[in-house]
């Protein structure tokens, strides 16, 4: 009979981790839906969506090789939603640049999306053929996929620290989003204990152990240097309206106001400007 430690390590921790991971993938949905129906990206950065695909595809493959349902279902929705978010952003950018050259952002995101599938397809072929003479080909292939996936997971956890110099210089942690960092921290803790106690798999507890440290640093910085400007949140009340194909009036108004501010900043002497 399984004891309490086994149940916590093998069921509770990965189950919570799976739920938190999927919550992370769903979080950008309101922002992307707004961009989709207003045809306006605003300050939305599409690059993290492509990185999500890079990260999740590897873990989906690793989950299949390890026959780990928790790993698989923690990442398959990340691949699906990451594709949806990326394609939506590319569509919005294409509509905005229909009469001119495509922007560097469009070319960069499109290139990374294509490369993501080329990369993992190539790695899959290498993993399937490079270890045929090994005593345990599946284990060797799993290690290769797991090592690469670990690298992408660490990059994901470290991404918010790209602004750490700015945080110390301004003594302002506005660039660090505390709710997401908190979720990342709890998520890393759950997968760490699952990996080290439940599976004894360094490819799981290794990157998540580092993720615990990185997220912990970010969490502390949010309190050491409190944000001087609160981030404007996206309302989840509009999701059902958006999924029905309707556009909440507040989205349209917001997009128009931001467009006017952009025009004003580009041409402050424009006589047609209402400002």
Please provide a written account of the structure.
74% of the residues lie in helices and 0% in strands. It has one domain (4-167, 231-263). Mean pLDDT is 81; it is low at 262-266 and 270-275. The longest helix has 28 residues, at 69-96. By secondary structure, it is an all-alpha fold.
Task: List the main descriptive attributes of the protein structure presented here.
74% helix, mainly alpha, single chain, globular, 275 residues
Summarize it.
The protein has 275 residues and is mainly alpha-helical.
Seen as an oligomer or otherwise, the chain set is single chain
Envelope shape: globular
Task: Please give the domain count.
Answer: 1
Number of strands: 0
β-strand amount = under 5%
- Our measurement of the CA-to-CA distance between the termini, rounded to an integer number of angstroms, reads 73 Å
User: Uncertain regions: pLDDT < 50 for 5+ in a row?
Assistant: 262-266, 270-275
Radius of gyration: 21 Å
Can you count the helices? 11
How would you classify the helix and strand content by structural class?
Answer: mainly alpha
What are the secondary-structure elements, in order, as H or E? HHHHHHHHHHH
Instruction: Please give the share of residues in helix.
Output: over 70%
